[in-house]
Specification:
The chain has 434 residues and is mostly helical. It has helices at 2-26, 36-40, 69-75, 87-96, 102-114, 120-127, 135-145, 151-158, 165-192, 206-214, 220-230, 239-249, 254-265, 273-288, 295-307, 325-337, 342-361, 372-381, 390-411, 424-430, and strands spanning 54-57, 61-64, 67-68. It has a three-stranded antiparallel beta sheet. The longest helix is centred in the middle third of the chain and has 28 residues, at 165-192. It is globular. The structure holds carboxymethyldethia coenzyme *A. Carboxymethyldethia coenzyme *A binds at residues 238, 269-271, 273, 306, 311-318, 363-366, 370-372.
Length: 434
């Protein structure tokens, strides 16, 4: 790992003085004010986190290390015959900010390969759970069970300097990431395919090996690469990224942090929305007897859901104010590979009717689809129809971004996170009510 580590050391050395200077000379510069609405309302819009891995503009959508999704997909190297870049090349970009050379990609690929063996006890932990356990619980527990492998925790006990925390964290991150495709695919095959497990193929890349272990044919490998890239990071304030950062800020190692990140992702307002979308569409399909509804019929289903006090899953966003470019990238994939699929027809009609309805409904600040509106539909098309599983895919992807963030948090010496609370009475006093 010499080259990657040296490269990171170089980047970290040049970044540290920037953070130090901002703190020492400009620490009092205000970047946000906090209103009562924001304090009660989930801290929306309060600028109080720093990350250089990705940035989310409300109208443009996500940029990874300064690159939009189409730029990432165009610029990163692809293996011969593949439509999408490898996860390995993308992880290099997230970590270093640079587009990797072929040698850089080979190095990460080799690192993952060396570290990919999943200990038997992880499978034993999964097998010990009742079969009706949610896949996200299995995934979170499997990750947490490996905590005893943490190099950072071991080194920390020895009493290492804060300046080198990032090095053992990088070791942990690579060790963990390398195992996630096999753990994810194992959960799928164990729970949904009669425990008919497919052994990994060490000659395949991250996405290719995942598709192979899932037992799904091409182009599912390219879809896996696209998925993991699209779901990797969405700056630091969303529940999963923030949870990972928060837990790691206590210097809990990445096994604790990523397991907690998975737990946050499992909420229906966050990553579980991809499962909820499919559940919702299936409900409509059942009522329609399998027929694709026309726009008027679909409008009725959408209104019925809203009038019963439920949200339309896959629509709305806390930051975005336009169609999520992660949705757009998946739509492009659909138009190329599954334009004729009846469930895609559902998604397409929803895209036509939901934004206007949400505007008329008048509550959601963003009536446009988010990343989850379409992701399950593509899985369904390729035979992965057990929608409980979909958020695990999100979790594998999200780990790429959160782990990159945690490595940099450690490198830049970010402290333990500790915002301040006030009481309702204090708010009333500040508002001049009392
Ligand atoms: N359907 C119906 N109502 C919606 C809505 C939707 N898709 N999106 C927002 N609203 C409602 C909210 O529930 C809220 O209602 P109340 O005032 O009664 O509480 C109101 O509109 C204002 O919400 P907002 O400020 O626009 O949105 P938030 O920042 O509070 O929440 C989100 C954002 C994503 C949780 C919300 O849009 C939602 O629940 N969407 C559906 C679930 C979903 O798709 N989640 C996945 C998001 C992407 C991800 O993280 O994976």
């Amino acid at each position: 790992m010499t080259t990657l580590k040296e490269k990171l050391q170089e980047k970290i050395d040049s970044w540290r003085p920037r953070t130090t200077r901002l703190l020492k000379e400009y620490g009092d510069v205000k970047i946000s004010d906090v209103s009562i609405t924001q304090a009660i309302g989930g801290i929306r819009g309060v600028k109080c986190l720093v990350t250089d891995i990705s940035y989310l503009d409300p109208y443009e959508g996500i940029r990874f290390r300064g690159y939009t999704i189409p730029e990432v997909l165009a610029k990163l190297p692809k293996a011969a015959g593949l439509e999408y870049p490898t996860v390995e090349s993308f992880f290099y970009l997230l970590l270093t900010g640079d587009i990797p050379t072929e040698a850089d990609v080979n190095e990460i690929t080799e690192e993952f390969r060396k570290r990919s063996k999943v200990p038997q006890y992880v499978f034993d932990v999964i097998n010990a759970m009742p079969m009706d356990t949610h896949p996200m619980v299995m995934f979170s527990a499997a990750i947490l069970s490996m905590e005893k492998e943490s190099v950072f925790a071991r080194e920390y006990k020895k009493g290492i300097s804060k300046m080198v925390y990032w090095e053992s964290t990088l070791e942990d991150a690579l060790n963990l990431l390398a195992k996630l495709p096999e753990i994810g695919a194992y959960i799928y095959r164990y729970k949904f395919k009669n425990n008919d497990i497919i052994a990994p193929d060490p000659n395949l890349d991250f996405g290719g090996n995942f598709a192979h272990m899932m037992g799904v044919n091409k182009p599912y490998d390219d879809l896996a690469r696209l998925y993991f890239i699209l779901h990797s990071d969405h700056e630091s304030g969303n529940v999963s990224a923030h949870t990972g950062h928060l837990v790691a800020s206590a210097l809990s190692d990445v096994y604790y942090a990523i397991s907690a990140m998975i737990d946050g992702l499992a909420g229906p307002l966050h990553g579980l929305a991809n499962e909820m979308v499919l559940r919702w569409i299936q409900g409509v399909m059942d009522q329609m007897g399998g027929k694709v509804p026309d726009e008027e019929e679909m409008k009725k289903f959408v209104w019925d859901t809203l009038n019963s006090g439920q949200v339309i899953p896959g629509y709305g966003h806390a930051v975005l104010r336009k169609t999520d470019p992660r949705y757009a990238a998946q739509r492009e994939f659909c138009l190329k590979h599954l334009a004729e699929d009846p469930i895609f027809a559902y998604v397409d009609i929803l895209y036509k009717v939901v934004p206007d309805i949400l505007r008329e409904h008048g509550k959601a600040k963003n009536p446009w689809p988010n990343v989850d509106a379409q992701s399950g539909v593509i899985q369904w098309h390729y035979g992965v129809q057990e929608y409980d599983f979909y958020t695990v895919l999100f979790g594998i992807g999200r780990s790429l971004g959160v782990l990159s963030n945690i490595i940099w948090d450690r490198a830049l010496g970010y402290p333990i996170e500790r915002p301040k609370s006030v009481t309702t009475t204090m708010l009333e006093e500040m508002a001049g009510i009392k």
